[in-house]
Write a structure and sequence with these properties.
CATH class of the largest domain in chain A: Alpha Beta
CATH superfamily of the largest domain in chain B: MetI-like
Distance between the termini of chain A: 62 Å
Shape of chain A: globular
Structural class of chain B: mainly alpha
Helix content of chain B: over 70%
Largest sheet of chain A: 7 strands, mixed
CATH class of the largest domain in chain B: Mainly Alpha
Structural class of chain A: alpha/beta
Helix content of chain A: 40-55%
Number of domains of chain B: 3
Largest interface: A-B, 33 and 30 residues
CATH superfamily of the largest domain in chain A: Periplasmic binding protein-like II
CATH architecture of the largest domain in chain B: Orthogonal Bundle
Number of helices of chain B: 16
CATH architecture of the largest domain in chain A: 3-Layer(aba) Sandwich
Number of strands of chain A: 13
Strand content of chain B: under 5%
Oligomer: heterodimer
CATH topology of the largest domain in chain B: MetI-like fold
Order of helices and strands of chain A: HEHEHEHHEEEEHEHHHEHEEHHEHHHEHH
Number of domains of chain A: 2
Strand content of chain A: 15-25%
Chain lengths: 411, 355
């Protein structure tokens, strides 16, 4: 009996040892040549593309057998190209992208969940929440935020307006000085959403998948955006590059832009840069609620064992404490790693504190595939209102109709 | 700074493998064709077969095979929710759910995507026929300007004059610039505040135009851009054709008392017809399928500026309706095929060329 029990325990111990050894073998980075195709949507203007390249180079320096092929793509192009490449059976090895891509990618089942590959307890809950779908996480967070906020040029504006009434008053003075008071990317509904939150609205109902665009709150939001244009508080026409250029050249006093530009603006303006929350909507008393998410690594399905091992190792390298703090220093983005978030350098940085303050009133960006219908429905109607071709109430109704029609095509 | 060789060597090393494979494949094709056509069939046209074979294989691989794959895709319900291997043929779906039989089976279980192209919105809300009509207008207006302006410039250049070579080189520049670069530059000039056109308009006391937001003016902006891009091609083609006309025809016409217009109508036009017809066919097809100009000029994504190919792109890559988009592509292909055949028959071009 004792002998039997001893042999049983010994057998179990040996089995456990072999299992552990097997696991270790599966996770081992191969020593042969490996090429990692990394697709990212970081821009050069914000020095972010250079940061990605530097990370890849640093990893290669430690692992000379691993080479990287980096491809920079616009956010929407990255989504389209990745789905197409996956259909062709030739996806890249790794993605560096935004959270709302998880919706279509998980629907098409072309990325893998990361819960079993990483210890996600090391990352901020707010970042992880942005890539959680159906009880699993579909990306490893790189940065925390990706949210819009108000930047201002202290040479032109001493302090940010606290609410929209103050903004309107300030704008009259600035116009008198020949300065454009405010700029933002007027072509994308990502810049409409914070104001919708400020007017008390939301693009989805409580179930998180039913579009709710034909609402009094959306009408009020569209009226507000139209007012900004009609009162010449914003330019008659401005896309992302136009708004960014006007602000950088000192022709615009304030800009609503994302945390991804904080580093570039800091380098350009130095102490003259101010960071604040988007002004509270005076009529409701609510703060605008920009979408928060971050940037994420997403791993395509179908990678061979060796490549996946390298990808996992690279992700752990890229999001380790040192590199997260380097990202804070170079790109001025809030890190996703908990230990990096708690670093005293973050609390001491006024700009990052301002960015984090805006995040407090943000809402997680929906990841569901139905969000695509909302984006595609809001954009043309918003532009029609700004062009004066459509009344806000008609535009809101048409948005809803378009979103409802879009939902049927998803089936 | 690296030498030129050091700069290009990394790129060369990336493509050398592909080039070697292509060279080897060509050699294999030639050997196979020689053995079959030369030794086995003892064909008199061996040289022709050997010269044509690599290009034919290339066309089969790069065009015919993708077309067949797309035809296959057009019979499936592939979308984001039924991606890749999860897509099914409609007849499989019908068989599983006890679908319709008889004539309805063709529309609902075989060619459902083809039927949906005509009965469902091709984008968010717009249906097929309005987009088709818009595409016809887009094509007709552009080709008309291309031919008329191209012919006018060709006639101006088809005269002895000083500096003709310089004028020709300058007029070809729009054709030489990469199309996307040119279109993006034009898009910048349509900016409401800082674009060249609105600056000129305001200088003359006129109201600036919302080139990107107003549906009509956005369409005009697309046409202006495409006319600028397309005229050089037509000019070069027609100039070449005019220069091949013997001067004796014009001398004879002058002797007969023909006016300038009569010479143009009865000498120039008939003699350039064998060149003009394919040029117009090509120009029509290229304009009908022109993606870059409508896509980039229509920065605000107005559905009113979409033509068939941009709507197709949206259906495939923005809304992920892959099966539907494949059927849509074939509908466009058939439309153009019908047009080409009709044009050839109505203009009698085949009769002319076989005379």
């Amino acid at each position: 009996m004792k002998r039997t029990m001893f042999l049983t325990v010994l057998g179990l111990l040996l089995l456990g040892a072999f299992a552990l050894a097997g696991c270790a073998q599966q996770a081992a980075v191969p020593t042969g040549p490996v090429t990692i195709q990394l697709w990212h949507q970081e821009g050069e203007a914000e020095n972010a593309a250079q940061y990605v390249q530097a990370l890849a180079d640093a990893y290669t320096a430690e692992h000379p057998n691993v080479t990287f092929e980096l491809s920079n793509k616009n956010t929407e192009v990255l989504r389209e190209d990745f789905i197409t490449a996956s259909l062709a059976g030739a996806p890249p090895s790794l993605l560096w992208t935004v959270n709302d891509h998880a919706g279509p990618f998980t629907t098409a089942e072309i990325i893998v969940p990361v819960d079993d590959l990483f210890d996600l307890g090391d990352y901020a809950d707010s970042a992880l929440a942005a890539v959680e779908l159906n009880g699993q996480h579909w990306g490893v967070p790189i940065s925390n935020g990706n949210h819009l906020m108000l930047y201002f040029n202290k040479d032109l504006v001493s302090d940010a307006p606290a609410d929209t009434e103050a903004l309107l008053a300030m704008a009259q003075d600035l116009k008198g000085q020949g300065v454009t008071p405010l700029v933002y990317n007027q072509t994308e509904p990502f810049w409409l959403v914070p104001w919708l939150g400020g007017f008390g609205g939301s693009v989805f109902a409580a179930d998180g998948v039913t579009p709710t665009l034909n609402t009094p709150e959306m009408v009020a939001t569209l009226e507000w955006l139209k007012q900004l244009k009609d009162d010449e508080i914003v330019p008659a026409e401005s896309d992302y590059d136009g708004a960014d250029t006007l602000f950088k050249e000192g022709q615009a006093a304030m800009i609503i832009n994302g945390d991804w530009t904080l580093g570039a603006y800091k380098d350009l303006f130095g102490d003259k840069l101010g960071v604040a929350r988007i002004p509270v909507v005076s009529s409701t008393g609510d703060a605008p609620a920009p979408y928060t998410s971050g940037k994420f690594f997403m791993i395509p399905t179908g990678l061979d064992e060796g490549t996946q091992a390298v990808v996992v190792d690279f992700i752990e390298f890229a999001t380790n404490n040192d590199n997260q703090l380097a990202m804070v220093s170079q790109l001025a983005r809030l890190p996703a790693l908990k230990t990096a978030l708690e670093d005293e350098s973050i609390a001491a940085d006024a700009y990052l504190a301002g960015s984090a303050d805006q995040m407090v009133v943000g809402v997680p960006m929906p990841t569901v595939v139905e969000m695509r219908c909302n984006w595609d429905s809001m954009k043309p109607e918003m532009l029609a209102v700004l062009a004066g071709d459509k009344a806000p109430d008609q535009a809101a109704a048409d948005m809803q109709a378009a979103a409802d029609a879009c939902l049927t095509t998803l089936e | 700074m690296d030498t030129l060789l050091e700069q290009i060597l990394p790129s060369l090393s990336e493509v050398i493998g592909t080039l070697l494979v292509l060279a080897a494949a060509t050699a294999v094709i030639e050997v196979v064709v020689y053995l079959i056509a030369g030794r086995l069939l003892k064909s008199r046209h061996l040289l022709v077969w050997m010269l044509v074979a690599p290009a034919a294989v290339g066309l089969l691989v790069l065009i015919v095979y993708p077309l067949l794959w797309e035809l296959n895709l057009s019979l499936t319900n592939m979308s984001l929710r039924r991606f890749g291997d999860k897509a099914q043929y409609f007849w499989q779906v019908c068989a599983a759910s006890g679908g319709p039989s008889g004539p309805s089976w063709l529309l609902e279980c075989l060619g459902k995507n083809y039927a949906d192209v005509f009965r469902l919105p091709v984008l968010k809300q717009v249906q097929f026929f309005p987009v088709f009509l818009r595409t016809v207008v887009w094509t007709g207006v552009n080709v008309a300007f291309h031919v008329s302006l191209g012919m006018g410039l060709a006639m101006l250049l088809n005269r002895p004059m000083r500096g003709r070579g310089i004028y020709r080189a300058l007029l070809i520049i729009p054709w030489a610039i990469p199309q996307v670069i040119a279109v993006l530059a034009w898009r910048g000039e349509f900016h409401y505040e800082y674009g060249y056109f609105n600056i000129i308009l305001t200088q003359f006391g006129l109201a600036p135009i919302e080139w990107k937001a107003d549906p009509t003016w956005n369409f005009v902006a697309m046409i202006l851009t495409n006319v600028w891009l397309g005229v050089p091609f037509m000019m070069v083609i027609l100039l070449g054709a005019m220069q091949s006309i013997s001067g004796e025809y014009y001398e004879a016409a002058e002797i007969d008392g023909a006016s300038g217009y009569q010479q143009w109508r009865h000498v120039t036009i008939p003699l350039i017809q064998p060149v003009l017809t394919p040029a117009i066919i090509l120009g029509t097809i290229w304009t009908f399928n022109n993606f870059n100009v409508p896509y980039f000029i229509n920065q605000n994504e107005l559905e009113s500026s979409d033509i068939l190919v941009t709507a197709l792109f949206g259906a495939a890559f923005e809304y992920n309706r892959y099966g539907f988009a494949a059927a849509f592509a074939f509908v466009i292909f058939i439309l153009l095929l019908v047009y080409v055949l009709l044009y050839i028959v109505l203009t009698g071009t085949l009769k002319e060329s076989t005379r």
